[in-house]
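>> received
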Amino acid sequence: MKTVKLSIIYPVNKITAPIVSTLIKKYNLEINILHADISLTKVGTLVADITGAESDIAAALQYIGDAGVEYRIFTSKLIWDEKRCVHCGACTAVCPSDALTMSHEDWSLQFNREKCVVCGLCTKACPLSVMSLA
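>> returned
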């Protein structure tokens, strides 16, 4: 079994296409939706972990492309240098998936790697450059 983190970009004319259900039923994939921003009037995005046999994932990616829907596979990961971090929270303001949050108990920065969509916005917002993509 293999897992890939994928961003699917739906053009407005494909918003109603049953892409995710087809990936599950036809290609026997497990889909863990991490973030979604989809409406009937604008380009939609969905970020998910997709798990399955490597051949099924390859066939599913071919299906997505053939359906006229774009996708991007995340090959980077976010590195947080926690020792240098001053927990100012600047990164939390730009994080679209709430992977970076402030603890309500001690106001320390919390990083949930599972929610991270590897967009890189936090790397630009961090005043100390403790966030980087690798």
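>> DSSP finds three helices and eight strands in the chain.
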